Amino acid sequence: MTATAEYVFQTGISPASRETYAVDETLTHCPVSHDLLDVQYEWDKLPVPSSLREFERRWSSRRNPLDFSGVWRFRELLPFAPPEQIVTIGEGQTILQQSDYVGKYVGLNDGCLHLQYEGLNPSGSFKDNGMTAASTHARMVGAKLSACASTGNTSASLAIYAGVTQLFRCLVFVGSGKIAYGKLSQALDYGAKTLQIEGDFDDALMQVRAVCDEAGIYLCNSVNPFRLEGQKTIMYRVLEGLGWEVPDWIVVPGGNLGNSSAFGKAFIELMQLGLIDRIPRLAVINAAGANTLYELYEQQGLRWNDGRPDQALIDAFYADMDAKNRRANTLASAIEINRPVNLTKCLRALDACDGVVREVTDEEILHGKAQVGAGGFGCEPASGASVAGARLLRQQGVIAPSDRVVCILTGHQLKDPTATVNYHTADLDGSADSAVSSANPPIVVPNDFDRIMEIIRQFE
Ligand SMILES: *Cc1c(COP(=O)(O)O)cnc(C)c1O
Hints:
This protein has helices at 65-68, 100-106, 127-140, 153-165, 181-189, 201-215, 225-231, 233-241, 258-272, 292-299, 311-323, 343-352, 362-375, 381-395, 417-424, 449-457, and strands at residues 8-12, 20-22, 37-41, 95-98, 113-117, 145-150, 169-175, 193-197, 218-219, 249-253, 281-287, 356-360, 405-409. By secondary structure, it is α/β, with parallel strands linked by helices.
């Protein structure tokens, strides 16, 4: 495949703002409409395989780094970069696990629940799928300095790409609230210049956008449309893991809504290209303490509306939030976001995928996470929201027991050990009084052989 820049362009997402820009322009919104931009392809002029199975052949040429990558193996489906410019560090080697253990907890028949482990990426979260694409675009435009705001995983991901490739330096902005130490330690260790803003994620994002605009720094948050191109491949790998069969449901936690937006775009395009014959339903799960999408979509009826969502409704919601000084608050720090930048793109995804949105409490999130720990490879708190959300939708009868459900586990268990240890020592919120059913606390024993044997015998 060769570079085909003339068939790839960026455009505002609403029909009202059909300005188009070249693929090698560095823009994160349409300067005219202020819409987010979307990468669009003239597919009929680009080489696209006639069947998804053709991608499997690349398993046999894994010495080629582009074929090894779980993102670029699918490069004909995100054909914005000349192959020689592609930046890859071996991302996307992730696993789809069928788990009857977690399936039982969710309320599904055996064989029906699948967990997609995006924590197995190089920096330990799904963010690498997007960062390989953003880094590629940064290289295409010759960026020397990049930046992002982050609740932790975006900064870890940007930092690893900057560090491993040495193609550009990077700046990360984090809020001064909750940042899991696993994630902060990565940004520091990978050598990112780290600015801790006195404020939360929403504040940090507002600042980094302004700074990047002012100083011409390459912005790597999910307002960057190329990140979403990379994140589409999570869905390609899910389909691959299911033998190219389309599941009934994709369940994903929602923070800034980049992932859910990318998933919707992936399925819209696969249908357009005739590579799948139906689209799965999408469930986006908010934490109850950061539930903007749930409030707007489920409570207030906000819809995509052919690209013309009710902006007045959105504005009124945020005005009320500001008036009441309502701040996002959840233990699932990766989704502790009150102003999801990809809201409109997510509405498009929900529209295309007959989607639903739910909110789950921190306690439900941590119980879901504990199930994944006990019956799977483990995950970080935000990822537990997808299991908790699937369970809620099962209880509500929206998901049927025989539906094939894929929960996306967005981040690795070791990202936030504090949350895990607190849960198992029944200290959910630091107050030490929450009764937790599936907690597995350490047993304190004296340094005494007989007493230790007494305890061991209780297990026999
Ligand atoms: C970033 C992140 C999310 C939220 O994803 P969005 O695309 O922002 O909705 C969820 N879980 C983890 C672990 C993350 O790092």
